[in-house]
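Severity: low
Component: inverse-folding endpoint
Summary: output formatting inconsistent between runs
Steps to reproduce: submit the following structure tokens with default settings.
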């Protein structure tokens, strides 16, 4: 097959589009599916029930689709699904899901995943996300679109991080982080809106002003979460409705 290095091991049953490129000594298991224009670096290992979309670039020594690091795992045919146009750098590890959850670990499209990132079982990673070096997601974590997690960010299992969040390097996340928020610290604390990121993504001055009022209501007016929700609901703005929807799904509590 064109683009497959002669030392690569492609097991029988693997389905690769004709223009997939596979580097030296890479290993691809029998239940793997890889879409068009994707490149696999040297010594990468892709195994398990793993589906990878189109136009992905996977660097050397990545390990994708290995069994979850969960003692309850008993060999169930759980999955890893990766979308399109992702960059996955060296030594990243993405595990398949578990039968105790959805049974699938999901990574969306247009994500920039730097070296040594770990995505554990049953995580849901959205689109247009940046995970900087050594970011670690424990099991069952959800990351919203356009989030940026600074290097060495560690996220506790079952936590949710909302869309457009940014974390500082070395942040430790034990509770959910609402959309639009800048967070940092050990444990993570809120440090205002991610205003610069929102501007870059086309949020209008009016939307930013609304979100600043929402942030003040949530974090600076001394209200309980339920009291803040009542006031946020009264704002009636779509971007605030998106925030309150997240807050009502927060099962671990939010950073305060």
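Observed output (run 2 of 3):
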């Amino acid at each position: 097959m064109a683009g497959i290095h002669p030392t690569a091991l492609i097991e029988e049953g693997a389905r690769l589009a004709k223009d997939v490129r596979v580097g030296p000594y890479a290993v691809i298991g029998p239940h793997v599916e890889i879409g068009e224009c994707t490149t696999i670096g040297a010594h990468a290992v892709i195994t398990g029930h793993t589906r990878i979309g189109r136009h992905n670039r996977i660097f050397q020594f990545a390990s994708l689709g290995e069994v979850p690091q969960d003692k309850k795992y008993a060999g169930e045919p759980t999955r890893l699904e990766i979308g399109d146009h992702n960059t996955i750098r060296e030594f990243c590890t993405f595990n398949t899901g578990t039968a105790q959850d959805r049974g699938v670990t999901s990574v969306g499209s247009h994500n920039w995943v730097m070296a040594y990132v770990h995505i554990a079982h049953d995580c849901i990673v959205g689109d247009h996300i940046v995970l900087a070096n050594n970011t670690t997601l424990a099991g069952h974590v959800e990351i919203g679109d356009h989030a940026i997690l600074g290097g060495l960010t560690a996220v506790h299992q079952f936590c949710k991080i909302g869309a457009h969040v940014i974390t500082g390097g070395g942040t430790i996340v034990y509770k959910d982080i609402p959309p639009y928020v800048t967070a940092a610290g050990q444990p993570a604390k809120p440090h205002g809106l991610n205003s610069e990121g929102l501007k870059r993504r086309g949020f209008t001055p009016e939307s930013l002003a609304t979100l600043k009022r929402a942030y003040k209501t949530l974090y600076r007016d001394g209200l309980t979460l339920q009291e803040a929700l009542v006031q946020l609901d009264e704002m009636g703005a779509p971007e605030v409705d998106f925030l309150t929807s997240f807050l009502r799904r927060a099962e671990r509590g939010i950073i305060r």
